[in-house]
Amino acid sequence: MAINRLEISNPAYTPDNTKFVTVHSSNLQRRHDIVLYNSNAQGENLPVVVLMHGVYGNAWVWMYLGGIHLAYEKVQAELGGIEFILAMPSDGGLYDGSAYLPLKKHADYDKWITEDVIAAVKQVQDTVSDSSRFYISGLSMGGYGALRLGAKYPNLFSGISAHSSITKIDDMAHFVPTELSEYQCDNQRETDICYWLEQNKSDIPPLRFDCGVDDVLYQSNLNLENKLKTLAVNYTFDSFEGEHSWEYWHQHVQTTFKFFAKLELSAKNID
């Protein structure tokens, strides 16, 4: 799949090692953005981490609220020589957050990530190819997106890591006043993370998630863990001190990078 039109930032005017991309999306029927970090990394078939934001965010928040570029640099020496391209897309711009779903009333925010974003990264990064492995992560609503898309499309992603996740669509009510009817999809089970985990349980890539004990979503994450115990799916759940905050995500996204680096090193050794 190729994207028909892309606008790419001029490196002469862009922060170092960073690239801004606007994608003309057929799935959204409008333009939306991706921020790439570590875009100057050298190599072939470099792996990509897709990082998805929460309900109030956009493509830039992981860097300019969460300092993810600094978090990545903190642990780079511990990644065993692995270089990741970090791809941070917008959720597609629905007013109160798209939840990265194929929404009946709006647009296909699911395929925006799984088709458009992946295709765009391959087009704008010479170091990324069809042989590159993609990993998926996110925070809050983006954590929900990472868990659901990783489970629904297990052959697209080589690992899943989620932070402070919304774990069911009802959790959106903690953050936005939108009626839940706005999140209806053609498939009535579409929003159910456990449905997709069960449907594809033999193919689910390595999965981890975490939540702070003072987070409004902590009980929801415990409930998801209890459900996962009944499924034949391998996972790791970690509880940490902290709440629903950028301070928490800046710290624990470092765990995500280390987790994905171990998976990438293992996959490279098999290759």
Spell out the key features of this protein.
Rossmann fold, 7 helices, alpha/beta, 271 residues, single chain, 9-stranded mixed β-sheet, 9 strands
Short description:
Helices cover 31% and strands 20% of the residues.
For the biggest β-sheet, the strand order reads 1-2-3-5-4-6-7-8-9
Could you say what the CATH architecture is? 3-Layer(aba) Sandwich
Q: How many structural domains are formed by the residues?
A: 1
What are the low-pLDDT stretches, counting only 5+ consecutive residues below 50? Answer: none
CATH homologous superfamily heading: Alpha/Beta hydrolase fold, catalytic domain
The CATH topology name reads Rossmann fold
- Mean pLDDT value: 96
What structural category characterises the helix and strand content?
alpha/beta
Q: Tell me, briefly, the overall form.
A: globular
Largest sheet properties? 9 strands, mixed
* Beta-strand proportion: 15-25%
> Could you give the count of β-strands?
9
Radius of gyration: 17 Å
Protein name: Putative esterase
InterPro entries: AB_hydrolase_fold, Esterase-like, Mycobacterial_A85_antigen
Pfam families: Esterase
